[in-house]
Amino acid sequence: MVYVCKLRYSSVGLIDGFRLPSALCARRVFRVDFRYWVTPDPRLYSFRCQKIKCNLEVHLLHPKTLTMAIETLKHLTILPQSTYIDALRFLPPLSALDRYIVSASFNSDSDEASISIHSFNTTNSPSLTLQSSFPSSSRVTSLKVAQKSLQNPLIAASTITGSIHILFPNPIDASFQSEVSVPEKTLHLGSVSCLDLQENGSECVSVGEDGRVNLISVGDSALDYRRVFDSKGLVSYTAARWASPTEFATGGLGNALQWWDLRRAGGPVSQFKGNWAQGATSGIVHSIDIHPSRKHTCVAGGSFGSVFAWDLRRPQQPIVLSGIDNGETATCISESDVWEVQYDTFTSASDHTNLSSKGVLPVMICSEDGILAVLKQAEEPAELLAENCAINCFDIDRQNPSDVICSLEWESIGLLTRA
Amino acid sequence: MPGILTPSGDSSSIIPYSPEPNTPTLYTLHHDLKPPITPRISISWSRGNSLRVTLFRPLTTSIDDEPGGKVVDLKLSGEDVDTEINDAARWRRIAYGSVSPFAHLQNKKNAMAALSELRHSAPYDGEWSKYVLEYSKEINSLLGSKKTSLPSLIEDPKTVLKNVEEPSSLKAGWELLEIFYANKQSHPWIPEQLVDWLSDYDALFSGQMPSVHLRLVEFQADLINIQAVENEPAYWQAISSALAVGWLDIVVKLLRLHGSYQLNQLGTRETENGLVEAVAVLVSKMPRMRANLPSGKLGECYNNKSDFMRAWEKWRAQITKLDCSAFWLQCSHNQTKESLKNLLQILLGNTGTLSSATCNWVELYMAHFLYIRPFTSGLESMYVLAQKCIQLKPASSLHKLMRLMLGILEENTEVVLAECSRSFGPWMIAHATELLTAGSVEAEILLKEERDNLGGISIEESHRLVYAQVLSSHALTWQIAPIYLISCVKHGVGLLEILLYKQPAYHSQVLLKNIEICRMYDLDNVSSNAMKIAGVHHWKHGRKGAGVFWLQQARDEIRLNRIAQKLFDFVGKSISDESFEQWEGLIELLGSESRTAGGLEFLHKYRDFKRSLQQIRDGVLNDAARKAGDALILLMKNPSTPQRFWLPLLFDSLKLLNWQERPLLNVSQTNLLLNKLQELSVARLRPDFVEVGLPPQALSSVRLALATNLGRAILEE
């Protein structure tokens, strides 16, 4: 009898004198073949855990939820690379037929970082072909793409040494046509932790651990920049996301979010630091997303697997989608850092009907313990991938939302197609 | 390490080892410092095999815009043991891929050990070998696949050898171990498995010694230029060699190239063609003692010994019959006749013919298995046979795979270990020990026995530690080293702690990784230390918020209190003016719980107080004034409020003390404040008292205000 089940734990304990779960299994909520375990029946196992007061819980998943999760994934290809992928994005279409992705990679042997464009071939065996490459001065911390209306797309990248590069790819051969950049030590002291491009690519906001918030206006040949705020290091920012042409949200230490309005200078318009239970206050927000149609809600992901939505209209009440301290209400898909959150634009026909009634739209997340999943409010999360290594980032194709790319810690890129 | 490496020629050396000729390597340092540079240099080991070189400028000639020195990392190029896989990215891929099978096997091992403890039964049962085989197959698939290039629609008759991707000796070595140690179920078929193994990896021998593969490659290159193949001795030589090592499909394919098959000659060479075809059929019908054959390979499989025996006898009878046939006399082509007869001798197992058809001892060994002793079983008899073959075909130097094979046949685990370590490197040996110990009690004792000369650890553990060391020397693989370290009972956890301490905690991504690993292995101590380091680093570099955050995470009250003092200096200067908004964020971060904030709790209350005062300044509000008064009392009561803030606080709230409408503080509250003021006056007499930048009459005006307030409060009560 094989039980597929989910083990939840908050610390690895010693059971019967040996360490359980072992290294890999300790990584994540995982599926176990219980034939190999001490207790053949997981319910007994759960009982045993309670008895020795080890923080292990066994949940028997309903078989249906699991099969559903598996069904949603139609195709998965993992392409090994020879470099560490720091970030990747789908590029808005350069021409009608070709699809491209842009990736920021780091070669540890030569200590070289680069931003490159690959053409993305989705036939029976998906593959990536390198089109062009741009050498970056240092490792890329954040990579965003945007498209001015009916014009060529542009790529913005920030680096660990503090420089910002805006690249314009050539639509004919996907080479890099031109580049404008702000050198290091101009905008930020040290690393830029995140940047975000406006939808039309005209402005870019950058934040850093040094507590500066900068606004960069993108011109064709030069960049104009100004400082929106400088907390002089008293507050560090780790994530940023535009909400409208004049508003954006930032995230930082202590699971805090800030809302900024360019029309009102001198600091954030609104701050969020929810009434977290003990423990969750100590997290870091790693990523924020704001849905273009629901600008009042931003969804954020950070430490300890916490994913929550912040509604500006109810600023002190976070809607927890996943996390450890939410009691009985929400699920906990991961207990490690959630590296990226994005609203999932891919919905099947059945989902359309009840979307409007939902508070928070479906959100895709990727985490340190190798989970790529879609979270829906008040529903069991749908796990797309459960890898042995961290999934550092992912991107959903805007034109074709069933396609997802993700970068795995073990120097590879995953290409997924959902059914 | 087992076997200390000594210079070659020394009789005491366990493994013959020839160090590379000692030519010093020159490395150039790239630093941006302008000359002159004094020879003040400090060198220390950095991560892995890179050196950290610190260059100092002379102190006397310090120029302001020039840095005082520079730290450069210098990567020393290491030599790889296995030169075939010199591609570092490919090595890492193997390292990543082998983590999961290894961890799963360890997991099962732990579980089974616990299970046997519960049942008081033997630690191993039949199931274990199944897991080991599973593990071995998973690792094997990592090392490269036997993918052939896509078969073209029109098969070129002149392509004898298929284009296979270059085989790696690492994979060959692993498969050899798998055949002998992991695949217990198919032990009766070891000879056939070895034949298959050789057909996959014979090419590896070509570089070092003659081999059948090399002979076939050479022949194939000439084949295009040859008109009538049957006249060429190379053709017959290629056939007999391929037949001797059992590559039957190639033999049949080559035989069908014989000129007598051509339509225009079929009439005149009918008998000759019949003989060739008869041999080809006999070859393709050869009985094989094995379960099944991969597609494209020839022969007839027999699962059990008696069936095989019967078929074998029958087949040999057919060969003998053909050998004595009268048709040979009618065959006019002399070379064909002689060579076909020679092939029949190979099939009949003529030692001399086999010896001349093969190129090295392993090939001869396989020929013996195929045609003379198909029932060879047991390592002892296999070893005797191998010795015989080496005598027949001596080689000046043995290939590493041959040495490995001999070590296995000899049942000498130490030799196998030494070969794995020497020829294939730490990855191989760390993973192969699982195969070696599977089911062999002696090997298990040898590998798991704790040895004093290894510092009290077992051989197995020492190899794992070495491999973990290799992993942790690379920036991208260090995070998988913990999985190997944790499987080491004695020194694993200690070394894991060292590994984690060595990571640069001030790099936020590395810090988060560090914390994650600590969380997995219950190393709270290590992670809190890393957080402390990060906190202090951020603090020093002006990122006060991040510094406070990490120190809070580490629950380091001592440092929080220490930096609180520094922060107060900063606060004292800036907080009274309008720039208080900057502090909002940090105060939010601190939260309202005093436990985590340490001395910084004061800031939170101070903010509330300031906010109320601000409101009063904006417009007179009784409510706000009362709140401010309460906040003031709270602040003054709180032991965490630093003494030097008392006077400024009171001075700031002069307006509250002199509130027009009614006294805001009652008698006891006013008394408290007066007491504090008195305490302050006493403290002022001490030499270590620090004056705050307030007007000199501040103290007296506060005292006056308090006295007035006391009077009004008494009257009101």
TrEMBL record, chain A:
Subcellular localization(s) per the UniProt record: Nucleus
Presence of keyword Transcription regulation: no
Classification via InterPro entries: WD40/YVTN_repeat-like_dom_sf (IPR015943), WD40_repeat_dom_sf (IPR036322)
Major subcellular site: nucleus
GO cellular component: nuclear pore outer ring
Key words, A-Z: Nucleus, Repeat, WD repeat
Keyword Transit peptide (UniProt): no
Superkingdom: Eukaryota
PANTHER family cross-referenced by the UniProt entry: NUCLEOPORIN NUP43
Protein name per its UniProtKB record: Uncharacterized protein
Organism: Tagetes erecta
Lineage: Eukaryota, Viridiplantae, Streptophyta, Embryophyta, Tracheophyta
TrEMBL record, chain B:
Biological process, per Gene Ontology: mRNA export from nucleus; positive regulation of DNA-templated transcription; protein import into nucleus
InterPro entries: Nucleoporin_Nup85
Primary localization: nucleus
Superkingdom of origin organism: Eukaryota
UniProt keywords, alphabetically: Membrane, mRNA transport, Nuclear pore complex, Nucleus, Protein transport, Translocation, Transport
GO molecular function: structural constituent of nuclear pore
Subcellular location: Nucleus, Nuclear pore complex
One GO location term (cellular component): nuclear membrane
Quaternary structure and interacting proteins, as annotated: Component of the nuclear pore complex (NPC).
Family: Belongs to the nucleoporin Nup85 family.
Role: Functions as a component of the nuclear pore complex (NPC).
Designated name of the protein: Nuclear pore complex protein Nup85
Species assigned in the record: Tagetes erecta (African marigold)
Source taxonomy: Eukaryota, Viridiplantae, Streptophyta, Embryophyta, Tracheophyta
